Amino acid sequence: MLRAYTRYLINVFIFLHIAVVFQSCTKEDSPVDSIHNARGIAAVANNNYSLQNFFLGLQVTNHVPLLTEAGPFTVFAPANEAFNSLGAEARNAIRSNATLVGQIVPYHIYPGVLKLNDLGEERNQVFTMQNNMTAYISHMQNDRESLFTINGIPVQPKGFEASNGLVYTTQALLQPTQQLSLAELISNDASFTFFSVAVRHSGLADLLEGSDELTVFAPLNSAFVAMGIFTTDEIESMSPDELKQLVLPHITEGRQYLYDYIMMADVASQLYTETMLDRKEASIQLLPNYSWISETGFRGISISKPDNSGGLNTSEILIESHIGRTANNGVLHGISTVLRP
Q: Among 24, 65, 241, 275, which is 20 to 30 Å from 87 by CA?
């Protein structure tokens, strides 16, 4: 009798234990064991409050299983605020834009170990990300500071270690647009319609579609209106030579993001001199920072270029709204003034 009663108690205990485990596993807010218990990158993102939006992106796009594998991987994880660029309600935007987020997330994953402190001091070193697209990572130093960037975006140099790799935090989303050329970025953006027409009718489109890396300071449509050009027909009526003189002062050799100029500028004068393709110089002056926005103590740059009449054309580019758009052959900056010859 005693043995039967003992077996009964044991069976009851087993039943209750199974029931408790079952209920805990079926709660909606309970993480999946393979995510929560793994000591990998997925767990790092899941357990870090500042990366909760990125972890949601991993879930929505089914990248959690990848980041629980042995790897190794290096992840450049955008902080929560970076996802505000998708919309006012970031988490809802992540859920409702699974296709877009699915293109963005693998661009933040490097299939290997990439220790930033082991990188040599060099700008825009080329790395192929999980989606087979190129990212450009810089390690820059001057007498004032040291800075790491990816596609011109600052990266926190102290990362999180995981059993299958590393996690670094970035300030903004990496946009996988660099499959496009500079010419395509310009022609696809309605903000640059006037400049796009000028490029096309000047015969310089091939230059902006070529393999040589360039940095373009493209005037917005409003900049042309401000100088008295009100329609694209007026641009089309100009000769190719006139248009070349209009376009070339806005282009320089090399790939330069905003932070590249901030780090290349003279520490004392806070000035950098850039030679444009019209063989004339443009002055790039650093703008002092008045808020928390910049990693470097500067809020952006101004670019100035004298014109033939003795005047000075100046345009500001602020970090808060722009760092530089990545193309497969360079960087595109939008400016509010035409740098007239």
A: 65
